[in-house]
Specification:
By secondary structure, the protein is of the alpha+beta class. The protein is 25% helix and 22% strand. The longest helix is centred in the N-terminal third of the chain and has 23 residues.
């Protein structure tokens, strides 16, 4: 039998060591089984059909093992997990505080920049410092760069360390090597004459009520028809000025001076949009866009420090409850990578009585803290109108939190209930999540004045909300206009 086992001597490398360990374990188990087996005499029982005597038969009973089979199985499972961790790419979180990388050298790439930390940023968190050093990056995107291992500390020896903790404090004089993600992002925008619902504008910022089905900025699959394309056209004729993010090409200057946006419509211009935050394609409501570098930095910092208050309205299937606090971390789904999920509590035991942290599984996902406050305003027995205020701004936060509470948003094709979504499409022709960012409170980025903006719901959502909450227009007129 042992001639058919793979020889550990012929295997090389880590994979060879791994298979050699499993082979030796199996050989040891078989030898112990053979040593503990012995013959015993047993007799057949009398047949109910014909009673007859049978000759004694010799057989081997089940062996009595002197080893711990469960321990061997657990060790094999552990080896399997270690092998999977060695060969799997991507989703494993970095647990080391700092990773020593190779020597700095080679030709510089276009997406690599070197940033020196000035005295005034010494002692700051690395994500906050990066946001100050490069105002085109939000603090959230800087944190993502750090978490993804794209920020390194250049050492005097010529080597560099990958800084994986967003809480890392930089020192004055540090040189940071930042690898910008190579994403297909346009630097030139085609202005398009698209309708914009403007709630407020001055020379520093513009506040919009975004329509359903409109993507905020160009990206793969949505290179035009976005809020940014519409802004590139509108800002050429804005009475408050175009701001700093519209390009300075001759044609663009001429169009602005002549107050003739039609001359620039459809022509490629340079435009760096001052997007401060985003709304999903199907979500309607308030969107703030900065027009200058100074206002972009101030607004980005306000969002990062959570001094901006964001309140939404949602139509949900079921009743999420009154004055509910949802404080559950959110992370990317381990299988469906385009989706998010509430990350399970590693200390909570399931029906097996085993906590997730005690199971032999792969690297544990921590997720990012997400805090939502939910309050049901009306419930008709099937659908609810819920007000949701979020303290954090995680991807799909409201949609994921309400799904986790088993009261998903009506019309949500990712986190909702398929049968309800089909009914909404068939009866009302609506194919989007009924979610609306109706209220935003912030301080003006330049003057510091406290400002409160409110936006009415879109007509499709208003129709559903009125049926669920017949007195809503009287009790909540600002969103039922």
């Amino acid at each position: 039998f042992f001639f058919f086992l793979p020889s550990p001597i012929t295997a090389t490398g880590k994979m060879g060591q791994f298979h050699a360990q499993k082979t030796l374990l199996l050989a040891l188990a078989l030898q112990i089984l053979a040593a503990n087996s012995f013959p015993v005499q047993c007799r057949h029982t009398k047949s109910n059909i014909a009673q007859q005597k049978t000759a004694p038969l010799w057989a081997k009973p089940p062996p009595t093992a002197s080893f711990d089979l469960e321990a061997i199985e657990a060790m094999e499972a552990k080896l399997d997990m270690e092998e999977a961790m060695r060969t799997e790419d991507g989703d494993e979180e970095v647990v080391e505080e700092d990773i020593l990388s190779d020597e700095l050298g080679g030709a510089a790439e276009d997406n690599i920049v070197l940033l020196e930390v000035p005295d005034e940023l010494g002692g700051k968190r690395i994500d906050a410092a990066l946001a100050k050093l490069d105002t085109s990056l939000s603090r959230s995107s800087c944190g993502t760069l750090v978490a993804d291992g794209n920020v390194q500390l250049v050492e005097a020896s010529g080597k560099f360390k990958v800084l994986s903790r967003k809480s890392h404090k930089v020192s004055s004089g540090d040189t940071l090597r930042v690898t910008m993600p190579k994403e297909e992002k346009p630097t030139e925008i085609v202005p398009q004459d698209l309708p914009l619902n403007i709630l407020y504008e001055d020379e520093h910022m513009i506040v919009l009520n975004k329509a359903a089905g409109m993507v905020v900025h160009p990206a793969a699959g949505n290179w035009d028809g976005t809020v940014v394309n519409a802004l590139a056209h509108y800002l050429l004729q804005s009475p408050y000025g175009a701001g700093e993010f519209v390009g300075t090409e001759t044609d663009t200057k001429t169009a602005i001076q002549a107050n003739d946006p039609a001359r620039a419509d459809g022509e490629v211009i340079s435009f760096r949009p001052g997007i401060v935050h985003r709304l999903d394609k199907g979500t309607t409501g308030i969107l703030v866009v900065a027009k200058t570098t100074q206002s972009l930095g101030a607004l980005s910092e306000a969002f990062a420090e959570r001094t901006v208050k964001k309140t939404y309205l949602a139509v949900t299937v079921g009743n999420p409850g009154k004055r509910v606090t949802i404080d559950k971390p959110i992370g990317r789904h381990p299988i469906h990578r385009q989706r998010m999920r509430v990350v399970p509590d590693p200390h909570r035991r399931d029906s097996s009585g085993i906590a997730p942290k005690d199971r032999l599984t792969g690297p544990k996902q921590k997720g990012r803290r997400a805090l939502s406050y939910v309050d049901t305003l009306a419930f008709d027995g099937k659908l609810s109108i819920a007000q949701v205020r979020i303290e954090t701004g995680r991807t799909h936060q409201i949609r994921v939190h309400l799904q986790d509470r088993h009261t998903p948003i009506f019309g949500d094709d990712v986190y909702g209930i398929d049968a309800w979504n089909k009914k909404l499409l068939k009866t009302h022709g609506i194919a989007r999540p009924l979610l609306h960012a109706y209220k935003l409170e912030l301080n003006h980025p330049i003057t510091g004045e406290k400002m409160v903006f409110a936006a009415p719901m879109a007509d499709d959502m208003k129709g559903i909300a009125s049926a669920v909450w017949p007195t809503g227009a009287e009790e909540f007129p600002e969103v039922f206009q």
